[in-house]
Write a structure and sequence with these properties.
By secondary structure, this protein is mostly helical. About 50% of the residues lie in helices and about 10% in strands. The chain is built from eight helices and six strands, in the order αββββββααααααα. The strands form three sheets. The chain has a two-stranded parallel sheet. A two-stranded antiparallel sheet has the order 2-3.
């Protein structure tokens, strides 16, 4: 890690840029045991357990609970700002649903390793927002499950990755195996998405 930091500094100086050590953060897997201090510009770089990158919360243990909570909170904020629109019965609300649900609630959901509890939390929020928007009660049926929408997004992303050239890092990551790691995982994310796709295409 220290070598990588030095390489970044070296290349930055070559193109006329200066690294800001105060803005450096390091996040590694929670099973990483190396406690070596990494420095940049002579200052020690802070090691964090999670951070927000491009609007998404990333955790060192792969948990997306914080991200799910943030997505629900942001979607609720969007709905609050659009109150006058969804209360107007003359307006077409389909575009509002698309903005709030897909652009805000499901931002980067393609890659979330969701647990059952997290999925239930998202599902409850999803139905709550749709009921408010459409003016229906919880007893009304016919609302599409958020879990099915996320499965579609995952399968679409998986197809995109599989079609990538072998030199692309996302494509290589699907085949990557940790050396010396003997315990075989039950499923990787590609296997899960393929199983989801298989179940979706099964006849009733």
């Amino acid at each position: 890690m220290q070598k990588l930091s030095e390489e970044v500094e070296k290349i930055s100086e070559y193109v006329g840029l200066r690294t800001n050590a105060a803005k450096y953060k390091i996040m590694v897997s929670d099973c990483w045991k190396d406690s070596t201090v990494v420095r940049a510009e002579g200052a020690e770089i802070e090691v964090v357990e999670d951070f927000c990158y491009l609007g998404s919360h990333i955790s060192n243990n792969g948990n997306c609970d914080k991200e799910c909570t943030a997505r629900i909170r942001k979607t609720s904020s969007v709905f609050s700002r659009l109150t006058n629109i969804w209360r107007n019965e003359d307006d077409d609300k389909s575009q509002t649903i698309s903005i709030a649900r897909f652009s805000t609630l499901l931002y980067s959901a393609d890659l979330w390793p969701l647990s059952v509890t997290q999925m239930k939390k998202l599902e409850a929020a999803h139905h709550k927002f749709q009921r408010r928007l459409l003016g229906i009660s919880w007893k009304d049926t016919g609302l599409r499950k958020l879990e099915d929408i996320i499965k579609e997004r995952r399968l679409r992303w998986l197809g995109h990755v599989i079609r990538m050239e072998d030199s692309r890092i996302p494509h290589q990551a699907t085949q990557w195996e940790l050396k010396g790691y003997k315990r075989k995982p039950r499923h990787d994310w590609t296997t899960k998405d393929k199983l989801d796709g298989h179940h979706e295409t099964q006849p009733d």
